[in-house]
Amino acid sequence: MDNTTQPLLRAGMVGMGMIFDETYRPFFETAYKKGMFSRETGDVEVLLAAVATRTGKRAEIYREKSKGIGHPFESFAGEDSVDQMLKTDLDFACVATPDNRHFEAAMKILEAGKHVLIEKPSVLSLDQIDQLTALSREKKVLAKIVYHKLADPDHKKLRTLVVDNVLQHVNNGYCSLLEPKSISGGQFAEWITGRNPGTYVACHYIKLIDYTFGGKLKTITATGQRGIVGPADGPTWDSCQMRMIYEYESGREAAFDIHTSWVTPENFPGYVEQEVQFRFDNGVWNGHARKRGVEVTIEELTPIKIPNSMNNHFNGTFIEPWGERSQRGYGIEIIEQFAREVAYVEFGSTGDRDSRLKEMAALDYNDVSADRQSVAAVAALEAILEHQAKGEPDCIARVNDPNGGLVLYKPGVAEPIVLYDGKV
Ligand SMILES: NC(=O)c1ccc[n+]([C@@H]2O[C@H](COP(=O)([O-])OP(=O)(O)OC[C@H]3O[C@@H](n4cnc5c(N)ncnc54)[C@H](O)[C@@H]3O)[C@@H](O)[C@H]2O)c1
Asked: Model-level pTM?
């Protein structure tokens, strides 16, 4: 820690793509301007001190843009950019690289003894979550994941009604999230080969279901379609559908379907179309991103430059009634919350550092140790699609069955494939 009198957190950033620009950048800029205050910690300075990217180009563009509104940061590019970044004086670092490149960077950050915040999906296998959890405990730092949908006020209300037993026993439900073609065709073109939209966005809903309703994940099935982003017999997926089956303490079950796509027409009114429905013993919950929000048409701007329906709850740029320009929403709050948890561990006035660390690591909405069932669902989806791409469709994954923690069964084949031995 820095030994100035004002508490200071120096942050690192791995990856400066779309999500950096949407959520991390506004968080760091606001923290630079206003600090981060709580009674526990006092006024904490939070600075974006160093960044690591593949080419360094976006870091240079942002360096220009951030003059006067952000801390001057060091930039490292290329193969060893993360190692270089970690030689600077940092307290925590965030990982926002493509989905299959989170693990390596996160392990390096933990190895260096820094707190880490990892974009969703945390990692793609249970072995990786085991390693991250063990290393974070050994190094006595936090390892957390960004699941911003848990901070969406609608999802907070859903969970509140469930926790208070107003909505009773979920039986089944569906979630869908459809992204436009520009995501798969432009934005992610560099890393999309072999990837699928389910891992990329279904993980939000996997976590929402897992965290909101609890229970034990038992079974995962999935399928998908190809032919737009890549060849119809290749490993890259246009859309996919998965089903998860949970069992609760009562012995009763629930089933959830999650549909995702990143090939929706560009001018689709939803732009990013999100919908959920959960059916309970005594109620039905419907959530629809467009129905809760606004629809706007502006000549020559909508729907391509400005979406028709904007999610101003997630992230919006505003002129506040008191005149100030701001960027805020739950997508940014969730990152600030992590920084607050780090500040509490390092500078809090309650108990000692160990007890504060334990307290923050026990928060199961974002700690890596609480992500096991979500990672199992993602790992199962990845394995099922991989087999489908090899001409072996319709596999089923079972969790904690007699053959192992995560086990894949091919139709008509008795021998199981054990994806993870330990208990999920
Ligand atoms: N929370 C959300 O709503 C949300 C939304 C979009 C994306 N994401 C997640 O954020 C992550 C990044 O997505 P994005 O949309 O910003 O992607 P992007 O393609 O726009 O940006 C990726 C960034 O990572 C960098 N990078 C790639 N490989 C690297 C490496 N090995 N070392 C260092 N830097 C590397 C690239 O230079 C680029 O700056 C993904 O895991 C994605 O699932 C989250």
From this structure: 0.94
